[in-house]
Design goal:
338 residues; Pseudouridine synthase; alpha+beta; three-stranded antiparallel β-sheet; Structural Genomics Hypothetical 15.5 Kd Protein In mrcA-pckA Intergenic Region, Chain A; 2 domains
Length: 338
């Protein structure tokens, strides 16, 4: 065993743990004392089921003294729980990030689906920023905004701190910015063009802690989306609709929830199209063949197709377009017209 020091405490590296292993340390607050370890970790690790927490404990949970912990252990106030994980061995992602626009101030890419913009518990090396840092060593690049990992399309990055401040102010004000998405949904649209004006809030009943829902009138965050039908197709008795989605506001999961509320769940949406257990099984690596068949696509069919904004330095109106990616285009082309 080797001993390492973190902050003002020292920890024993358990036997068999590699020198380059990554350790995460969790402190047990007083109010959670007495809780089972698997329940505690489910509470601490966002988007993690109890089954997944038990798997993590069995493979990586130790005390500061290097003693292995068990799922049914009861945690104590101020106890440290250490998760020793192998050096980041991540699911490979598409590392080619096509450039939509570039000058001395901005870099705009078409982000592929599956590439996260920020580091997460599952992704550290394979993020937009890390991939760009590897490809452009020494360059200053920072995200002006974010889109979900499974969503593809236009993503803007600033090349200096001064430009980043201006760009973020443009995004925050929203008066001079236009965002358009393309979605493929299950179901028939209520009309060729329609608007959804429903407030949104984080769903307090969801165990995922990320699912949004329509709020009661007078509550939640005001949210508006305009939809235009771009096509209608079918496969057997099932109808599919392709939509242009123009954002009036930029709430979390806004398009997905507004379409769901309109009877048009997005194809491949693990979090909203069915029950959220689909999402949990996918996060835990436990998705079944039946899950994949129901979803039809391995990711939700949502693409950030266009963004219009003033250039942060020149004020020129920039129209930034990202072509529909192959997976969504091939899926749509494979459906029946009529």
């Amino acid at each position: 065993m080797s001993r390492m020091r973190g902050a003002d405490e020292s920890y024993v590296r358990p036997p068999g743990v590699e020198d380059d292993a990554v350790v995460s340390i969790f402190r047990v607050p007083v109010e959670l004392a007495g809780m089972r370890l698997d329940v505690f970790l489910k509470h601490e690790l966002r988007r993690t089921s109890r089954t997944r927490a038990q798997y993590i404990i069995a493979h990586s949970a130790y005390g500061p003294d290097g003693r292995r912990l068990r799922s049914n252990d009861r945690v104590r106030a101020e106890q440290r729980v250490l998760l020793w994980r192998p050096a980041w061995d991540e699911t490979p992602v598409e590392r080619t990030l096509p450039t939509v626009y570039e000058d001395e101030h901005l870099l705009v890419i078409s982000k592929p689906s599956g590439v996260p913009v920020h580091p997460t518990a599952r992704y550290h090396r394979n993020t937009v920023i890390r991939i760009l840092q590897d490809a452009r060593p020494g360059e200053f690049l920072t995200l002006a905004h974010r889109i979900d990992r499974e969503t593809s399309g236009v993503l803007v990055l600033s090349k200096s701190a001064a430009v980043d401040r201006v760009v973020k102010a443009i995004f925050q004000d929203r008066g001079d910015i236009e965002k358009t998405y393309t979605a493929i949904a299950w179901g028939e649209a209520p009309s060729p063009a329609f608007r959804v004006d429903l407030p949104l809030e984080l769903d307090p009943t969801s165990s995922t802690r990320v699912r949004m829902r329509v709020a009661a009138p007078g509550e939640g965050l005001a949210s508006g989306t305009r939809f235009t039908v771009e096509g209608r197709r079918q496969r057997g008795d099932r109808v599919y609709t392709r939509l242009r989605c123009d954002l009036e506001t930029g709430r979390q999961h806004q398009i997905r929830v507004h379409l769901l509320a309109s009877g048009l769940p997005i194809v491949g949406d693990k979090l909203y199209a069915f029950d959220e257990d689909h999402f949990k099984r996918d996060v835990d690596g436990l998705a079944t063949d039946e899950d994949r068949a129901r979803l039809e696509l391995p990711r939700h069919a949502l693409h950030a197709s266009q963004m219009v904004l003033p250039h942060p330095v020149t004020g020129e109106r920039l129209v930034l377009d990202a072509p529909l990616p192959d997976d969504m285009r091939d899926f749509w082309d494979g459906l029946e017209t009529g």
